[in-house]
Every structure is written in structure tokens, then in C-alpha cells.
């Protein structure tokens, strides 16, 4: 009895240390929108990436705001959207405090990944080759965004 208890404790300690950081990190994310598609969930919660030039938002030119597809938080204004030619919706700036960043070393690259500060969902990567004064380019998966026009 005592022996199996010790075995149980030691194996759970081992599992804890073996858990990759990514998994622990993803545990802090929560699904709020129950209507998300499998592809949306893969991007938002497993840091996936949609196919380039697949997003309908690439051609969206109306005035309005882009919201988190999971929690609905307002993330970008249409005034910061630009055509980067990369195939993903791109923005020169985000609304203040809406994202948190972390360094992403996947695919042998060092990139800055950003996620929604409200729900923790992954949105895209931040680059320093943007056209605005701050030089930022938010490269965002279109499937992570919901556009709401002003009128
Ligand atoms: Zn969110």
C-alpha cells in the first residue's frame, strides 16, 4: 500500500518535470467561443498557422475593429491594417495592452509570438519590418480574428 503510494507520487513528480513548457503554457488558455472550428482551435491553442493567402480578411478594407475569435477582445483597428504581401492579415500596431509576447524557437527560428492578453489564445508573430514609425508588423492568422465594421 505504502509502496504503491510512493510509486504514484514519484511518477507524478516525474510527469510534472517531463511536461514540455508548451503544454503547461497551453493549459492557461481557455476555450470561450464554443463554436470555433477545428482549424481555428489548432491555431489558437496549438500555435498552428493557416495557409497563406487563404484568409478572406486580406481583402477587407472597411473601417472597423478586429476582435479575438475566441474571447471577443478588441485587438486591432482597421487604420493599422496594411497589405504586407505575405498572405496573412498584417497590422502596423495593436491596441494598447491587448497582447502578450513570448519567444518562439519552433522551426529553427527565433520569432516573437504574441497571444491575446485576455484569453491566452495564439494569434501570430511580431516582426520588425513594418511600414509604420514603430517598424512593427503584426502577422496575424485571419482565422483568429473577427472583423466588425463600424457601420
Ligand atoms: Zn482572446
Per CATH, the superfamily is: Peptide methionine sulfoxide reductase
Q: Report the bound ligands by name, code or SMILES.
A: zinc ion
Query: Helical element count?
Result: 3
> Beta-strand percentage?
25-35%
CATH architect. name: Beta Complex
Largest sheet features: 6 strands, antiparallel
Estimate the mean pLDDT confidence.
88
CATH-assigned fold name: Metal Binding Protein, Guanine Nucleotide Exchange Factor, Chain A
**Shape field:** globular
Low-confidence stretches: 18-26
* Structural class designation: alpha+beta
Order of helices and strands: HHHEEEEEEEEE
Proportion of residues in helical segments: 10-25%
Structure description:
This protein has 3 helices and 9 strands, in the order H-H-H-E-E-E-E-E-E-E-E-E. It has 151 residues and is an alpha+beta fold. The protein has a single domain (2-149), classed as Peptide methionine sulfoxide reductase (Metal Binding Protein, Guanine Nucleotide Exchange Factor, Chain A). A hairpin with a 6-residue loop joins strand 5 and strand 6.
